[in-house]
Fold this sequence. Notes:
The protein is mostly helical and 281 residues long. The chain is built from 13 helices and 2 strands. Strands 1-2 form a two-stranded antiparallel sheet. α4 packs across α10, α5 (107-119) crosses α7 (142-165) and α7 packs parallel to α13 (245-279). The protein is globular.
Amino acid sequence: MVGELTWRKRILGLWLPLVAFVVVALFPFTWMAATSLKTNAELYDPKAMPLSIQHPSLVHYIDLLKETNFLIWVANTMLVAVIATAISLLLGSMLAYPLARMRFRGGALLAIAVAVTYLVPQTLLFVPMADLIGRLHLGNTLTAVMLTYPTLLVPFIAWLLMGYFKTVPKELEEQAMIDGASRWRAMTRIILPLCMPGFISAGIFAFTLSQNEFLYALLFLSKSSVRTIPIGVVGELIRGDAFYWGQLMAGALLGSIPVALIYSFFVKYYVAGLTAGAVKG
């Protein structure tokens, strides 16, 4: 009797909510995959079930690769995301370390200012950003988005790393400095290696946001050869009131694969980094 109640509780309290969550989480990807694998005749048939596929076909994937610059958009997206993430991690760690490990006048106010900066809407920043990029003659270059994305990423990364830096006991750093290490050496040899899960978590966040960013990419990248995936897919597969749904869903599904792979490999470090940043002020 006790065993039956235990199994019933586990099914009702764990497995049913877990199955419901998985179904809801995978529903958009299932819809995209089903739409991308249908022929146009089946896709625009009003009597066809949305998630059923009668005649699977890769025609939309072939057309996407042949008729558009999708592979170039993928390369541009990966290049921009990697460089913007590297710049943001460097600047974020340089900002977070002194705020978390050193005491100086105005440090608490500066930490609050970092958090407030993250809350500034992107729509308020794109006008001065556009003026700045225009003055630097960087329009229609990947450099434009590589330099503007860190303005969105650095505040959150700094705030996340501050919480993670505070989890490392100060005695470790002080002991290293007593033994003759400089602060730079103590930071690079002791603090940063211990905070690697926090860096991985911040890096995944920065990479995901850089890959999916839309407003700045739409504003600064108008040529097809320099576009990223979100702008390329929307800009060239929606023409007036004509939506090429098959290719749109194929592009969206292929574009989500890198992020899905990254999260699947580093999800443990991502959760650990977010948790540490959340509990340490």
